[in-house]
């Protein structure tokens, strides 16, 4: 029986074998063999090498975005700050801050990190994927598969968070200005920037010390208020209205705020913004941790309270509304400040400056939009002492008494006093202060003359009205 089966099966194979070879696909035996065997090979390789890898990839457009952080840069900053001391091969990059260099990991250099008892390895890698034109840069994270939940759920968020902190602490801060947005500007940048190196701080700002401390404490509370704003359900932002005569330090206050918090400044020029829609485009491109400032807002658009008084402003030239360079409305600006679109970012300061607060619409500056109103007034004696320390390096002087008395009688801005101290530089402290006293006396005499002329004019007008009535 066995001999018969063997003979018949051999005969059948001799007959069917050539037919299968002639008509069956040639890859069928190989594919069948490969699929069956590879599963066992893969299982064996996994057993022998239980490591997992995660690539944090650098996107090609990151260099052209104004967004200050992304995962690749955050990992790079973390490794530079935390792990690079264990490396032996570095790549130096310019930081743009004088002669300082930033040392990063060179390609192929591996460094270890420990988190929660797990050891992980980082390595910068460059490769080119199939069909891709550009070389892909990434940081490759390698770890044991048993630590997957810890690494993915806790360690990577920890790295990104610490990396953002390192980027924020070491970056050069920027001053942004908005571009004109056209119909063809989809790929154009809506913001341009220069590096912000303004030297003003609250220590050098000429202002009443008690009021200055109040502002600093408010800024510190805002910076540390993440949990508070989340609990009360409000966007993490705060508004400040700076008002007062020209030369009282409103722009310097903005710089001091930015320097104190370490934020970038976005200077919004409303007159070149065509529509409310363009205003929203600007808003969504503003990064977190920033100061958004609109200077001289009373001069920018029709925001001077005519709506409240029931009046309609007319153009002296007779131009139609369609010819206006900007059609930004009060409603659009209010939505920009605290509407739904304002919640697209966090940790933002909004600052308005004006010389005429009484001209602004009450809806624009109410509490909740402009949370803190700061009056930048004429120079008081304490503010003068700050200027004397800045320009002359003195805290006390016998002539301070005369200056205190004159400042109580004369309205002079900090800018005017600073100019007096600067123009008399090189004469010595005594000569500088004597020159300032002379200027204060001149200002006092002029104020008295102007007051007398005003009284005479008022008396003449009153007499004229009386004669006409008689």
From TrEMBL:
<protein>
    <recommendedName>
        <fullName>AAA+ ATPase domain-containing protein</fullName>
    </recommendedName>
</protein>
<dbReference type="InterPro" id="IPR027417">
    <property type="entry name" value="P-loop_NTPase"/>
</dbReference>
<dbReference type="InterPro" id="IPR003960">
    <property type="entry name" value="ATPase_AAA_CS"/>
</dbReference>
<dbReference type="InterPro" id="IPR050747">
    <property type="entry name" value="Mitochondrial_chaperone_BCS1"/>
</dbReference>
<dbReference type="Pfam" id="PF00004">
    <property type="entry name" value="AAA"/>
</dbReference>
<keyword id="KW-0067">ATP-binding</keyword>
<dbReference type="InterPro" id="IPR058017">
    <property type="entry name" value="At3g28540-like_C"/>
</dbReference>
<dbReference type="Pfam" id="PF25568">
    <property type="entry name" value="AAA_lid_At3g28540"/>
</dbReference>
<keyword id="KW-0460">Magnesium</keyword>
<dbReference type="Pfam" id="PF14363">
    <property type="entry name" value="AAA_assoc"/>
</dbReference>
<keyword id="KW-0547">Nucleotide-binding</keyword>
<dbReference type="InterPro" id="IPR025753">
    <property type="entry name" value="AAA_N_dom"/>
</dbReference>
<dbReference type="GO" id="GO:0005524">
    <property type="term" value="F:ATP binding"/>
</dbReference>
<feature type="domain" description="AAA+ ATPase">
    <location>
        <begin position="236"/>
        <end position="380"/>
    </location>
</feature>
<feature type="region of interest" description="Disordered">
    <location>
        <begin position="447"/>
        <end position="470"/>
    </location>
</feature>
<dbReference type="InterPro" id="IPR003959">
    <property type="entry name" value="ATPase_AAA_core"/>
</dbReference>
<comment type="similarity">
    <text>Belongs to the AAA ATPase family. BCS1 subfamily.</text>
</comment>
<dbReference type="InterPro" id="IPR003593">
    <property type="entry name" value="AAA+_ATPase"/>
</dbReference>
<dbReference type="GO" id="GO:0006950">
    <property type="term" value="P:response to stress"/>
</dbReference>
């Amino acid at each position: 029986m066995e001999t018969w089966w063997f003979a018949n099966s051999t005969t059948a194979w001799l007959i069917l074998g050539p037919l299968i070879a002639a008509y069956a696909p040639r890859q069928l035996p190989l594919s069948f063999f490969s699929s069956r065997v590879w599963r066992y090979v893969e299982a064996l390789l996994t057993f022998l090498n239980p490591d997992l890898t995660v690539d944090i990839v650098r996107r090609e457009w990151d260099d052209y975005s104004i967004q200050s952080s992304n995962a690749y840069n955050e990992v790079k900053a973390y490794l530079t700050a935390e792990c690079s001391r264990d490396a032996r091969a570095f790549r130096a990059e310019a930081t743009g801050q004088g002669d300082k260099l930033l040392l990063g990991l060179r390609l192929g250099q591996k460094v270890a990190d420990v988190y929660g008892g797990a050891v992980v390895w980082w390595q910068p890698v460059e490769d080119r994927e199939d069909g891709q034109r550009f070389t892909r840069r990434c940081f490759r994270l390698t770890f044991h598969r048993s630590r997957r939940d810890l690494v993915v759920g806790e360690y990577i968020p920890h790295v990104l968070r610490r990396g953002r902190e390192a980027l924020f602490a070491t970056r050069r801060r920027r001053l942004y200005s908005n571009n004109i947005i056209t119909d063809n500007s989809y790929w154009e940048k809506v913001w341009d920037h220069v590096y912000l190196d303004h030297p003003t701080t609250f220590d050098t700002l000429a202002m009443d010390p008690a009021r200055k401390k109040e502002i600093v404490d408010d800024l510190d509370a805002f910076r540390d208020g993440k949990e508070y704003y989340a609990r009360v359900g409000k966007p993490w932002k705060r508004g400040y209205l700076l008002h007062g005569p020209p030369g009282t330090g409103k722009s310097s206050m903005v710089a001091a705020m930015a320097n104190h918090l370490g934020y970038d400044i976005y200077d919004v020029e409303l007159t070149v913004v065509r529509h409310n829609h363009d205003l929203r485009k600007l808003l969504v491109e503003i990064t977190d941790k920033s100061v958004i400032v609109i200077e001289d807002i009373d001069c920018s658009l029709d925001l001077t309270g005519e709506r409240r008084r029931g009046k309609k402003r007319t153009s002296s030239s007779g131009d139609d509304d369609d010819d206006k360079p900007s059609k930004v409305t009060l409603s659009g600006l209010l939505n920009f400040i605290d509407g739904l679109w304002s919640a697209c970012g966090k940790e933002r300061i909004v600052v308005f400056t004006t010389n005429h607060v009484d001209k602004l619409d009450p809806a624009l500056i109410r509490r909740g939009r402009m949370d803190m109103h700061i009056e930048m007034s004429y120079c008081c004696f304490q503010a003068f002492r700050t200027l004397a320390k800045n320009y002359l390096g003195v805290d006390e002087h016998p002539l301070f008494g005369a200056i205190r008395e004159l400042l109580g009688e004369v309205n002079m801005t900090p800018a005017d006093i600073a100019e007096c101290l600067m123009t008399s530089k090189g004469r010595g402290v005594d000569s500088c202060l004597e020159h300032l006293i002379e200027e204060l006396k001149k200002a006092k005499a002029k104020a008295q003359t102007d007051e007398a002329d005003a009284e005479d004019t008022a008396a003449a007008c009153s007499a004229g009205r009386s004669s006409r009535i008689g």
